[in-house]
Amino acid sequence: MMKMDKGLLLALIVLMIVVLSGCVCPAPFGASPTVAPTVTVTPGPSTTTAPPTIPPVRSLTTGTQIVWELQGGYGQLVVKNQITGQDAVVILAPASDPGTAVLAVYVKSGQDWTVDGITDGQYVLYDMVGTNWDDAGKQFEHTSEYARFDSTLNYYTTDTESKVYTITLSGAGSGDTLSRPVKPDDMPSLG
């Protein structure tokens, strides 16, 4: 075995500590340590955008009476709205005064409603179909149909029966009752 001088052993240990600690080049006497520059990142305005908001659909409850000027009777009108995604307003006007509504009732898409209490008489039937009901203007914001039904509805009551009409709204030109398009100005006033 080889004997080492204690001084040499101590010098080797110090050298190993210096090498392992990463301090190979000593700084000159009196020099201050060098500090690496720091980079500060300041977040700017968010680049993500909020998803677009969809305005709520304005609709009334099925059966809402927009106009009700009938004095009571026994006639019935059954309305079936089978139009997908669009509500309807069904309007009755006297055949003698088709510009004046005596009944207007709201029926939501996919729903049915029975109107009771229709007075005996002859009536013209209209419908308006659309989305986003404007309560102040009494019309749809987006209307796809204004129509007048070709047949007059003749309501009468006897001792044993009263008249019931059923209409099915299923799109332009279809259904169990035929109708024809009319201009908005040709519709009865809803007041």
Verbal overview:
There is one protein chain. The protein is mainly beta. The chain has a domain at 65-186: Sandwich (Immunoglobulin-like), CATH 2.60.40.10. Helices cover 8% and strands 36% of the residues. The protein has one helix and ten strands. The strands form two sheets. Strands 1, 3, 4, 6, 7, 8 and 10 form a seven-stranded antiparallel beta sheet that branches. A three-stranded mixed beta sheet has the order 5-2-9, with no helix packed on it. A hairpin with an 8-residue loop joins strand 3 (87-94) and strand 4.
Give the helix/strand layout.
Elements: H1 6-21, E1 65-68, E2 75-81, E3 87-94, E4 103-107, E5 112-118, E6 121-134, E7 139-149, E8 153-155, E9 164-169, E10 179-181
What's the rounded overall pLDDT mean? 83
- Tally of helical segments: 1
CATH superfamily of the domain at 65-186: Immunoglobulins
Residue share in helix: under 10%
Radius of gyration, taken over Cα atoms and rounded to an integer in Å:
42 Å
Biggest β-sheet description: 7 strands, antiparallel
The CATH topology of the domain at 65-186 comes to Immunoglobulin-like
Instruction: Look at the structure and give the CATH class of the domain at 65-186.
Output: Mainly Beta
Architecture of the domain at 65-186, according to CATH? Sandwich
Q: Indicate the structural class.
A: mainly beta
Q: Beta-strand percentage?
A: 35-45%
Oligomer: single chain
Number of strands: 10
State the separation between the terminal residues, measured CA to CA. Answer: 119 Å
Low-confidence stretches: none
Helices and strands, in N-to-C order?
HEEEEEEEEEE
